[in-house]
TrEMBL record:
Keywords: Exonuclease, Hydrolase, Ligase, Nuclease. One of its GO terms (molecular function) is ligase activity. InterPro entries: MBL (IPR050698), RibonucZ/Hydroxyglut_hydro (IPR036866), Xnuc_lig_assoc (IPR026360). The keyword Zinc does not apply. Its EC number is 3.1.-.-. This is Ligase-associated DNA damage response exonuclease.
Length: 347
C-alpha cells in the first residue's frame, strides 16, 4: 500500500517538514536542512545549516544575503533524482523567476509536488512551468479568485510604451519587485523594440547584473544618478514599489507612477497606492491557470499553502478533488511585503 501523504510531509511551525528526509521545504526560520524553491525572501531565508536548491537560486541567495547565507549548499540539477534520507526529490521548473523550481518528493509509491510560487504565462527570463504528475499537489493561491485573470503581459508593456510616447516630457517610474518582475519587464520592453536605456534604482542593480550574467538580454540599464533626476524627461525608470512613495521619486520631471503587479487588477488598490498607470503583470498564476495546473497534475488531493485558499479548495471539491487549506503564514507577494534585502541595503 502506498505511503500516506501525511507520512511524507507534515506542517510544523517552521513550515513543511519531511520526516523521512529530515528536511523542510521553504522554511520560515532557520533549520538544519532546507530545500528551497526559489530566491524570493518569503521562501528563501538565510541562516540554514544546509540548502539544496537549483544553482541559480543558490546564486541569487548569495547575491542577496552574502556567500555565508548557509553553512553548506548543494546544487539540485533540474529533473535529476536526488536521494535525501528515505525519499527521492526532483527539482522541476516552476516558471516563477530565474531558478525557480517545484520540488517533487517521492517515497513508498507516493509522489507529492510542492509548487512553490509559479506562473504559466510566457516569460523570457526563466524556464516555463512543467506539470508533474503526482498524487498530491501542494499549490499556492496568491490570485486564487475568479476576478484574477491576468492579461498578456506584452500588452501591458505596450501600454507603458504608448504612455512614454504620449508624454515625452514626463519620466515613467515603474514600481516592480527587484527579483524577477523587474527583469521580466525589462526583457519585455526589449522584445517590444524599446532600445533606450532603462534606468534602475540602486536596489535593482545587483540582481539585474546577475540576470545579465546568466545570458538574459536586458540591454543598457544604468543606475539613476541622483543629481540627474530632474533631467530625465522621457525616461523609463524601474524601482522597488517602496521607492514610489519616497522623496527619491519626486525629483523626476512630472513622474508617471506605474506599478507592475497582478494586484493592479484591483482598481481600489491602484488608487490607494497613487498609481497613475497600473500594469497587470504578475509572476503568479491566475485563477484559470491555477485550475489548469491542478488538473494537469492529475492529483487526487490538493493542499493550498497561502493566498486565496478557500476559493480554490471549494473549486477542487466541485471537480471531485480532495483539498484542504494549510493556512501557512509568512508567505505572499514579496513585492507587497516589507522591504527586500536590496531595498534595505539601498535605503
Amino acid at each position: 500500500m502506498p505511503l500516506a501523504a501525511a507520512d511524507i510531509l507534515t506542517l510544523t511551525p517552521q513550515g513543511l517538514y519531511c520526516p523521512l528526509g529530515d528536511f523542510h521545504v521553504d522554511p520560515m526560520r532557520p533549520v538544519p536542512r532546507a530545500l528551497v524553491t526559489h530566491g524570493h525572501s518569503d521562501h528563501a531565508r538565510a541562516g540554514h545549516g544546509s540548502v539544496l536548491a537549483t544553482d541559480q537560486t543558490l546564486a541569487i541567495m548569495a547575491v542577496r544575503y552574502g556567500e555565508d547565507f548557509c553553512r553548506t549548499r548543494q546544487v539540485a540539477p533540474l529533473h535529476e533524482p536526488i536521494r535525501v534520507g528515505d525519499v527521492t526529490v526532483r527539482f522541476v521548473p516552476a516558471g516563477h523567476v530565474l531558478g525557480s523550481a517545484q520540488i517533487a518528493i517521492e517515497a513508498g509509491g507516493t509522489r507529492i509536488v510542492v509548487s512553490g510560487d509559479y506562473k504559466r504565462q510566457a516569460d523570457p527570463t526563466c524556464l516555463p512551468f512543467e506539470p508533474v504528475p503526482c498524487d498530491v499537489f501542494i499549490t499556492e493561491a496568491t490570485f486564487g479568485l475568479p476576478v484574477f485573470r491576468h492579461p498578456d503581459a506584452r500588452g501591458e508593456v505596450r501600454k507603458l510604451l504608448d504612455s512614454v510616447r504620449l508624454f515625452p516630457e514626463r519620466a515613467h517610474l515603474v514600481g516592480a519587485y527587484s527579483l524577477g518582475k523587474a527583469q521580466r519587464v525589462m526583457a519585455l520592453l526589449r522584445e517590444e523594440g524599446f532600445d533606450a536605456p532603462i534606468h534602475l534604482h540602486g536596489a535593482m542593480e545587483r540582481l539585474t547584473a546577475f540576470y545579465k550574467e546568466q545570458g538574459i538580454p536586458l540591454g543598457d540599464t544604468p543606475r539613476v544618478v541622483a543629481a540627474e533626476r530632474g533631467k530625465m524627461a522621457g525616461a523609463v525608470v524601474l524601482c522597488p514599489p517602496s521607492a514610489m512613495q519616497d522623496l527619491w521619486a519626486r525629483k523626476f520631471p512630472e513622474p508617471v507612477a506605474c506599478f507592475a503587479s497582478g494586484w493592479m487588477r484591483v482598481r481600489g488598490r491602484a488608487r490607494q497606492k497613487g498609481v497613475e498607470l497600473p500594469l497587470i503583470v504578475s509572476d503568479h498564476s491566475d485563477w484559470d491557470d491555477l485550475q489548469a495546473s491542478i488538473l494537469e497534475t492529475g492529483a487526487g488531493e490538493v493542499w493550498v499553502t497561502h493566498g486565496q485558499e478557500d476559493a480554490l479548495v471549494h473549486w477542487c471539491g466541485t471537480v471531485g478533488i480532495r483539498a484542504k487549506p494549510l493556512h501557512m503564514l509568512g508567505y505572499g507577494d514579496e513585492g507587497e511585503a516589507e522591504a527586500s534585502p536590496e531595498e534595505a541595503a539601498a535605503s
